[in-house]
Design brief:
Bound molecules: arginine
Order of helices and strands: HHHHHEEHEHEHHEHHEHHHHHH
Radius of gyration: 30 Å
Strand order of the largest sheet: 1-2
Strand content: under 5%
Number of helices: 17
Distance between the termini: 19 Å
Structural class: mainly alpha
Length: 465
């Protein structure tokens, strides 16, 4: 997003100063809203002229003045003035410096209260689009990774204990599904963000014959707010974004946990590209998965910002209260954190190398077929509970002898149950996977369907907004 504050020199205002005025200053972070603020002002000025509230020539002067202001900001030579507190006052003052007293007509029928609500909604709309774009990009990488490893078997885990073999694609598509719901949450929150608050005035509406529908069309809003008191003081669209961002970061954090585990020497399932690992300053053998760890760590700050905003809101009476100015920094940080994490993930997963040999070897480990062997006995008419008991004793026996299930002779099998026959040797990891042939299961044909559905979902993403 445009408008980073680093290097502006305005960070200085964060330091304690002798006079307390700096406490109320927000310019060092709200100036990132300058494009939204100017777009809103241009639409407002045009509406004022159309409605005969200000003269048409004045509106033209104001609009061209605002465009000059925008150019100055973009060129980096706008004279930001902390003493003017916020972005609105800075822009209005500069406009008046450039075009004269006519600039003072811009704020007719408007308050900073509906103005900041507008800026935040415009900004959030863009943030949501970029976020969903980032999610789609990552989903594409996941599908690509799945396509590269179509038949790869891997151990599936519960309690981080090897449980049953699954297809690697199935595992990747699990994350695809999580991201699909994340995209859905953001799109859903977009509908409620896409509402024009401007025209609410300070809190009660404005005593001018404004045309809010015109402003909404100019700014591409789907609708206008229904209640001015609500519109100037509600921030639940920011809460929704942050709630969706928290869930999405939680998903990426879980994935990070797997990446950290998988890339350890103990597991050795994947190798991350050099770009996404760092060495240790003293241990030359190390390839630390710092990016995955940081994604996991940064999840905490996104949760924190959600909690901060919920707490900020909980005691506010209607309508605008200055507390609301505190809605921004955490929100911007959540947006930045999520967007960069989605990008890091795209890069990190694009370069990941799967150690197919190791993954396949562990997928074939015979203990993971214990459930299938129990199911096989069920197929011979043994009640499941009994079959489960047989297999538990069999596994304990093998463990004691340090042998694999598959190494047992048929006679040995039959000591545990008379129902065993030659068919027990046909139970392999692939057969186990293939048997899970119901909707949502890991059978190759079901997973192929899942992959196809994922591709279709990505095609449909062209109509996300
Ligand atoms: N800087 C303020 C904010 O972010 C803008 C609105 C100020 N309104 C006011 N009445 N002081 O919320």
């Amino acid at each position: 997003m445009a408008g980073s504050i680093s290097g502006s020199g305005l960070e200085e205002t964060r330091r304690p100063v002798n006079d307390f005025s700096s406490y109320t200053v927000s310019i060092h972070y709200d100036r990132r809203l300058y494009r939204q603020d100017i777009a809103g002002s241009i639409a407002h000025a045009r509406m004022l002229a159309r409605q005969g509230i200000i003269p048409a020539e004045d509106a033209e002067t104001i609009v061209s003045g605002l465009k000059s202001v925008e150019q100055e900001i973009e060129a980096g030579d706008f004279p930001w003035e902390p003493a003017l507190e916020d972005l609105h006052m800075n822009i209005e003052r500069r406009l008046t410096d450039l075009v004269g007293p006519v600039g003072g007509r811009l704020h007719t029928g408007r308050s900073r209260n509906d103005q900041i609500a507008l800026d935040m909604r415009l900004y959030t709309r863009e943030a949501i689009r970029e976020t969903v774009d980032g999610i789609r990009g990552l989903q594409r990488v996941l599908v690509g990774l799945a396509e590269k490893h179509q038949d790869l078997l891997m151990p599936g885990y519960t309690h981080l204990q090897r449980a049953q073999p699954v297809l690697f694609v199935h595992h990747m598509l699990a994350y695809f599904e999580m991201l699909q719901r994340d995209a859905g949450r953001f799109r859903d929150c977009y509908r409620r963000t896409d509402v024009l608050p401007l025209g609410s005035g300070a809190l009660a509406g404005v005593p001018y014959p404004t045309d809010r529908e015109f402003v909404a069309r100019e700014l591409g809003f789907g609708s206008i707010s229904a209640n001015s008191m609500d519109a100037v003081s509600d921030r639940d669209f920011l809460l929704e974004y942050q709630a969706a961002a928290s869930v999405c970061m939680m998903h990426l954090s879980r994935f990070s946990e797997e990446i950290v585990i998988w890339s350890s020497r103990e597991f050795d399932f994947i190798r991350l590209s050099d770009e996404f690992t760092t060495g240790s300053s003293i241990m030359p053998q190390k390839r630390n998965p710092d990016f995955a760890e940081l994604a996991r760590g940064k999840t905490g700050r996104v949760y924190g910002h959600l909690m901060a905003l919920l707490t900020l809101m909980k005691g506010l009476p209607l309508t605008y209260n200055r507390d609301l100015q505190e809605d921004k920094e955490g929100f911007f940080d959540s947006v930045d954190t999520l967007l960069t994490t989605l990008q890091v993930y795209q890069g990190m997963l694009s370069g990941v190398r799967v150690n197919q040999e190791q993954v396949t070897r562990l997928a074939g480990e015979s203990y993971m077929l214990a459930t299938d062997l129990a199911d096989y006995l069920v197929g011979k008419g043994v009640p499941f509970r009994e079959a489960h008991g047989v297999m538990r004793r069999l596994c304990a026996h093998c463990e004691q002898e340090g042998r694999d299930l598959q190494e047992l002779s048929l006679a040995e099998y039959q000591q545990f149950s008379g129902q065993f026959d030659e068919g027990v040797y046909e139970i392999t990891a692939l057969a186990s996977v293939a048997a899970r042939d119901n909707p949502g299961g890991t059978a190759p044909n079901r997973v192929a369907e899942g992959l196809q559905r994922a591709r279709e979902a990505l095609e449909a993403a062209a109509n996300d907004f």
